Amino acid sequence: MNERQEALFKSLETYRMYLLDDIEDVTEEEAEIIPDGFRNNIRWNMGHTYLDQYLWVLDVTGEKDEMMKKFNQWFGFGTTPGNFSQETPSFQELKVMLKNQVKDIKERYGHRLEEKYPPTSMEHYTTIEQVLVRTAFHEGMHLQAINDIKKFIRHAEKSQFRDQEEIS
After folding, report:
1. Which of 6, 76, 102, 132 is 20 to 30 A (C-alpha) from 49?
2. What pTM, to 2 d.p., does this model score?
3. Residue 23 CA neighbour count, 13 Å, CB half
4. Taking Cα atoms as reference points, which of 108, 113, 107, 98 lies closest to residue 52?
5. 35 dihedral zone (left: phi>0; alpha: psi -120 to 50; beta)
6. How far is CA 141 from the centre of its chain?
7. Spatial separation of the C-alpha atoms in residues 115 and 9, rounded to whole Å
8. Burial, 137: exposed, middle or buried (Cβ in 10 Å; 0-12, 13-18, 19+)?
9. pLDDT digits (tens, 9 = 90+) for 2-49
10. How many Å apart are CA 124 and CA 132, to the nearest integer?
């Protein structure tokens, strides 16, 4: 693996650390709340982030993965927590999966980052390396969504607490 690719994985690890740090203080209950004005919850954003990296790598390589088919039903583009089932990974399970994902991708695909594939169906990427750069940007968008949901939930909780104090 060359220096540029090592830097890519170091960046992916750092971005994932940011996400995991930002959900560290989120409770199971908070992870399930869909605030007014939002389409999804924190748990959905976590699962979608996890799915996205594998989905794009699988798309560029043309490989199939049955588990990602299920993830796509729960966390794919256009889905909501209404698509969840008993099999959908929990908040805690997703935390563990997200923690291990970058290492897994590095082990499975790190030696194939520059292999050329036909342009993907979703975009015109031809290497796994290109896809991973794209998924890093996407992860940042969902990290922001998670933080927006957290702020909304915690602001609503504080407002509700203040309202209760005023009534007392």
Report:
1. 6
2. 0.91
3. 30
4. 98
5. beta
6. 9
7. 17
8. exposed
9. 999 999 999 999 999 999 999 999 999 999 999 999 999 999 999 999
10. 13
Q: Which two tokens stand for residue 159?
A: 């407002």
Are the beta carbons of 66 and 128 closer than 8 angstroms? no
Length of the chain: 168
**Contact (CB, 8 A) for 26 and 126:** no
The total of other beta-carbon atoms located within 10 Å of residue 51's CB is 21
Burial 62-93 (b: 16+ CB within 10 A, else e): eeeeeebeebbebbbeebebeebeeebbebee
